[in-house]
Amino acid sequence: MRQRHLIWALLAVLVILVPSCSSLTEDDYDVRIAGVFSGPTTDADYNALGAKALEDMESDSVKIAYSESVEVPDVERVIEEYVSDGYDIVWTHGSQFYEATAAVAKRHPDVTFIGEFDGKPEGQLDNVWVLDRNFHTVFYPLGTMAAHLTETGQVGYLGGLSLPFSYAEVNAVEQGIADTGENVSLNRVWTGDFNDTIKAQQLTSQLLAGGNDVILTSLNLAVVGAFQAVNEKDPGDAWISVKYTNKSANGPDHYAASVIYDFTQPIEEIRDEIDSGKRSGYYQMNFGKGASIHLGDALPDDVRTAVDDAVDGVESGDITVRLDQTEGS
Predict the structure, then answer these.
(1) Of 16, 97, 272, 308, which has the maximum CB count within 10 A?
(2) Does domain 135-260+292-316 have CATH number 3.40.50.2300?
(3) What is the SS3 string spanning the chain?
(4) Structural fold of domain 28-132
(5) What is the mean pLDDT of residues 115-121?
């Protein structure tokens, strides 16, 4: 009996010593920010980059939450749920979500939204920030690289879904190739899925069999399949570029470059503007503003120099990369 009393006494002391510091209530947060992601945040790719940018904003005064692997038909409902839960800022990570984001924003003028877009949308609302991913501009130097790197004069582009931003990437690569003056053809194909590794491997093998010795990819997890196909070639006989993060470990002997994206800087800068009272604006990613190019160690020095010159030209404004979202041939 004495032991039981002692235990209860100790528990009582713990209740006193351990604060009623349970979890913070909603009123304890100055800002609530929600993110809506199109894929899993464990993809070590586009959605993981978004999750990192969101998590970097979390603090004692900032509450964050996110939903992942959200399909386009569901996104409007998911955004509405965050609005109902009292979130002050809702960021949708993916240009396919912009239309739904704008629709919800129109119904909730007191909430601020960050929507991604490829270009400048018409009719931007007073409570919507537009984050222009500007993919095409960063793909231009890949055209420069491919034109100087190919031995066959045949370059392949392997995309996921044939969306406007992907067409813009293709057209920017073709502009980069044309500006070198080299006689190089670009052959483009799409897997129909950014994460289908088997389809990516099959189509990459077909491109290689067709004489394309440089493969420029615009994929997420599916790029692993593209690497598997390229790695079957001897070093120097096939090259591959990737998007979003450095994936050189998948095939260092064939890795040419990565177009790297970091959403932390853009989102932090937009957040600073929102905190200052500016609830609508336009932010364009570019070299030095969330985008960069990482070149592989095996890349020849002359190709490396050509790419660096192209990046410098774009960054300085000496080179204007056209935004052309037409499908083309």
Answers:
(1) 97
(2) yes
(3) CHHHHHHHHHHHHHHHHCCCCCCCCHHHCCEEEEEEECCCCCCCCHHHHHHHHHHCCCCCCEEEEEECCCCHHHHHHHHHHHHHCCCCEEEEECHHHHHHHHHHHHHCCCCEEEEEECCCCCCCCCCEEEEECCHHHHHHHHHHHHHHHCCCCEEEEEECCCCHHHHHHHHHHHHHHHHHCCCCEEEEEECCCCCCHHHHHHHHHHHHHCCCCEEEEECCCCHHHHHHHHCCCCECCEEEEEEECCCHHHCCCCEEEEEEECCHHHHHHHHHHHHCCCCCEEEECEECEEEEEEECCCCCHHHHHHHHHHHHHHHHCCCCCCCCCCCCC
(4) Rossmann fold (3.40.50)
(5) 95
